[in-house]
Write a structure and sequence with these properties.
The chain is of the alpha+beta class. The protein has two domains: 2-43; 60-139, Glutaredoxin. The protein contains four helices and four strands. It has helices at 2-43, 98-112, 115-118, 135-139, and strands at residues 67-69, 75-77, 85-91, 121-127. The protein has a two-stranded antiparallel sheet. A two-stranded parallel sheet has the order 3-4. A hairpin with a 5-residue loop joins β1 and β2. The chain is elongated.
Length: 140
Amino acid sequence: MRNQDGMQKLALAALVATSTLVLLVGAAWGIRLYNMSRNQVVTQSTNPSSYPIGGFPMTGNLAPDFTLTDQFGHTMTLSSLDGHEVVLAFIDARCKTLCPLTAQIMYDAKTQLGSSASNLVDLVAVNTNPTATGVPEVQA
């Protein structure tokens, strides 16, 4: 009988110890998550002009204006896209593996925005292959 009483007390002590440990770990994680979220709010920019479409603040300088020739032989400048969000991809005109996949992912993402939002987004792929710079090579 005494042995059974001792086992019950031991089981109760183990339950109390385990419950206390779970509560302490939960409190520590809760405090950690609270502090992390509070620190993120403090470090984020409050200037809405620095927020891209996704809603996350961006740091850094604006890209300098540049002039490129598109796949149809027309020149275009970065400043001509002012007022739009610009997604730049740097690809190789002769690439047949990853580059077409990148272009397709960008196009699919833009179409998922819906017509009103996608009209505010311009996709620009910049050819980085110095030996394939002609319009026919880029079109191919």
